[in-house]
Structure formats: structure tokens, C-alpha cells
Amino acid sequence: MSFSCRIFNSVMSANGSEAETDSSCDGADGRHASGPVSAKLTVVVGSTHFSEEKMFLVQSCDYFRALYRSGMKECRQEEIHLNGLRARGFLIALAVLRGEKPALDGDDIVEAIECAAFLQAASLTTHLINLIDSDNCLLMFHTAATFGLMDLYHAAALFIRSMYTDLEAEVKKSLPSELISYVESLTPSVFAAVGAHVTCVGDETVHAASRTVCYLDETGNSWKVLTDLPLQASTSMAGVTVLDNKLYIVGGVHGLHKQVVDACFCYDVKDDSWSRISSPAQRRYNFSLVGVGDRLYAVGGEYERTVMSSVEMYDVTTERWEFAAHLPRPAAGAACTKAMSRIFVCLWKPMETTEIYEYISRKDEWRLITTLIRHQSYGHCMVGHRDNLYVMRNGPSDDFLRCLMDCYSLSSGQWSSLPGHFANSKGALFTAVVRGDSVFTLNRSMTQEFAVDSKNWKPRRQMKGFPRSGSVWTFMLQLPDALTLK
After folding, report:
1. The total number of structural domains that make up the chain
2. pTM
3. Picking from 191-205, 298-312, 407-421, which range would have the lowest pLDDT averaged per residue?
């Protein structure tokens, strides 16, 4: 059901409500508190009445969860009044809690932030964070500060800081001094890279000097060393990703026979330190590693030259791996990305069919969302920006040096081809990382920044390429001042 139609089914008059009664008051954990309440609850926001399943609200919002654990008289009432909120904001909250991803304009954003702060609805806060862009980031930041929605406040400030060159004049014109100071106290994310290196032990320490993670100093247009890789770490055919500003390196290979490396590592930029993490149960290499929320997902890959469909997820809180639903078919080195806090994998059927699957975490399943048929020679790269997935590929065999790009809109479910093409003779665009409303691409000759404008990528800057041969992993990291000054 569309968001616009939701209002007709969610909003009801005070006299039209029908509540089913129960003899208990359900708590958030399924236990009961004393006193009779209805299985359905009428929530009054202003003059508008909403009839909702009580357990749905309890499971979705900290406000209702706390209310029904408190034992207060309200948990026995069939009608709850939320004073100070507006009906439109509550309607938006209900839509998001049901799994919808509505686009929001200025007034909607303000009311949604107010509602997210009051209800302490984590999923609504996450949705708002996913919607941050150059047009609404100042509104998001200022409104989140007003209502104390701290996760959104910090995320919007980071976005502004990363786009500060473009936004500085408007920031200083429209924001109060204390908010400007907070933005300027943050360090922007930097474009970082690491080449493909095998483990370095015994007599091989001669290669240790080149085993570094580097970042691009955009002011000086030079690459600088951030940290050395642990000697036992391999980035050759490994899983490499960043989650919560920490760099993870999982698996990889060593030697001509592709011996799997068991050692897995996490680099914390805050402490400038490496630590070991546990290894996946299934040994694998040439797989995709992506992080969403508080979990890493190791997707597909190979073991003993056999392509696999297995998927494992690592909970960074419990520090444990567990298996998730298998891919629809075996895949190695599959293009994988995240967008709108959702995971997508691109499975290619040579020589022309691209299928994009989404991992539905609440159901632990992979769901086909779209298919694209394009003749190509080889290769895929996929990057997510807001609610769009950009798929890059080589052209057909008679013109394979062209990098062609198609865009899939998650909101509309429609494909579109980006105008023109991108030269790919030196590998450009087969690594792409988003920062704010920009995308960074890299090869040995150049680093390019593209401004993402609707369905177009417009070149903004060209900087120094990464002076390493072979495969390269790229990502964004927010570095403390102490690291950039060392």
C-alpha cells in the first residue's frame, strides 16, 4: 500500500473506533502486567484518532514499551493522548514502522523528527538519517538539535562537515553559532585505500614496507600512510569494509595455491590500533563483505576453488558469527553494496543478465528486486547513493573499454541509463565510494570525484591516483586530528 493511501486506513474518527478487549496488559517482552486493556489501542494526536495494534506499538517504540512496563494507569486504558505531536508526523512514523520508506519534504521532516524524538522510534530515526542530502541536511541538523534526536543530529553534522566546501556559506548564514562550532569541531571523512597484500611472516618481511593503509590528503593532493597492516593479515581476495568508522579485514589468501588465511582484524582509528576478531565458520576467499547496523555480512566466495552460496553474519556486539540465508546461487566476488540501510547483491549471468537481490533481515531471505539485461564483456561494480543503485559494467566485447552505467531507483522501481560513458582503459569506476553527495573513484593514474545530481554524475575534481598495482580496496574513514598530523 502506498504512503499516500495510508492516511485513509490509519486515521479514524473518535466514534468509529472498534477495540477488541483482552484481560491483560502486554509488556514489550510478551509478559503481562495487571489490568484489562484492549488488543487494539486508540492513539489520539491532536484531533485525529489512530487505531493500532498495541503490541505493534510496544515492539516499535521505546515510548510505548516504557509505558506498558511501567504499570501506570495508562496501560489499562483503551485510548492514549499524545499531546504536543501532530497527526502528520505520527502518520509518517506509522508508515516507517510498517516498513515503508516515504520521501519527505521540509514540513514532513520537521514533524517526523519531532515524532521520532518523542516516541524514541529507532527505525524512524534511521530512515531520516538515510534521507540526509545537500538540500535538507541543515534542516535535519537544526531540527534534530531542537528536539534532542542525537543520532540524527550527529549524522547530519557529519554530512555537513563532509560537504563543507559547498555548504559553508549557507551554514554560516542560517545556523546558530553553537551548531556551527559543533560541525567545525568534527573531522571530515577521508578517502582511503589499501592494495592487495598477502600475509608477511618469516623471510618475507622485506615486503612489509608496502603493506600500508593510506588516505588521500585532498589539500596537498598526496597519499599518506595511515597505518601498517598486521603481519598476519591478508588483503588478497579478502573481505574488506568499514562499519561504524572501523576497518575490518576478513580472510584472504596466501601462496600460489590460495591457502585461506584464518586471521581476521579490526582497525579502530580512534585508538589507532589493530585487534583480532573471530573468523567465519566457513573458510572463504574472493567474497563480498558489507556492514549494516551492527553486523558484517560475508557473502558468497570460494573455498578450495569451489564457488559458494553460503552467507555468514558477524555481530560486532556479541563478536560471534552465524550463518544467514544462502544466496540464490553460488557467487564469487559479487558486487555488493548498501543503500537506505539495506543490503543488495548483484548476481551476473554472463554475458548479459544482471539480477539484483536484497537481503531481508527480518525474514532471513534474499529477494529478487529487479533484472537488467545488457550485453557486456565482463565486470561489475555497484554503489548505493540515497535510494539509487548505480551499476557499472564494461561495454560489449567490441568496445569493452567503455564503462557504462545504469541506475535503479529503489523508490520507483525503474531503471535508467546515465548519459554518455566513462573511459575505463585504466580501471576507473570499478571502485566507487560515496561521501555526502559525491562519489570517489580510483585507479593508478587518478582519483576522481563526481557530484551526484539526480541521475547524473558530474566530474568535480581530479586528484592523484593510488600508486599501487593490482586490486585496490577503497573506503571512507573519519580520522582524528592526531592521525592526520602524525
Report:
1. 2
2. 0.86
3. 191-205
